[in-house]
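Hi Y.,

Following your request, here is the sequence exactly as I used it, all 245 residues.
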Amino acid sequence: MRASGGTLQAALGVVLLAVGFLFTWQLRAEYTIRQRLRIPSQRLEELAFLLQEQARHRERLETEIVQLRKQLERYADAAARDRAMLAAMRQRLVELQALSGVRAVRGPGVVVELRDSLRALQPGDDPNLALIHYTDLHAVMAALWAAGAEAMALNGERMTPTTGLSCVGTTILCNTKRLAPPYVIAAIGEPSRLLGALRAPDGPLGLLLAFEFPVTVKAVNELELPAYRGSFQFRFAKPEREGGR
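Below is the corresponding structure, written out as tokens. Let me know if you'd prefer a different format.
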């Protein structure tokens, strides 16, 4: 028992000695800092508190930066989707412009040239029988549209949904332009189908050839049709809104 009590006292002495050493070291360190920095101990505590606050503020900023980066990634993804949607809308606009005739187009097709008849008229013959009329052009164009033509032009005038043909004396009115022979119809589509429709036994060229109208037809690997140069004016037709008026 005496030996255990001595050991306990020795251990207690060592602990007290260590505590005394640490207390002394802290006092000396604080004293050294105050001497070197000339800062009072109360000010040091304030600086320590500010340092801790700055550390916590830095952690909050780091968390906020992570959140902002994630938000920026979401915005970038949305912008990419918007760009894809915008590209699709632009492509659709180009297609609609081509279909309506307000955009130049190119592609394979056929060229048909029609001239007035060279047959000598006999006394009493109707001169109109030797002229190409707008009805003849209508017949040729209708056969081409039916055979799958996707775009067409007459003497460089682009056909549009509102284009009409009519005879004005010995000329033909098309898109407010007066056209004279020879009449050249250029149509873009699958050439063999277009040629087959024109040369069919009951096709539109049979009657013209029977009356000795000079007609030439040829397939072309690439045609370029100009855009419609006029304007559209709608007074009565109003676009219907999606889902109702």
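The CA atoms of residues 150 and 188 lie 6 Å apart.

Thanks again,
Q.
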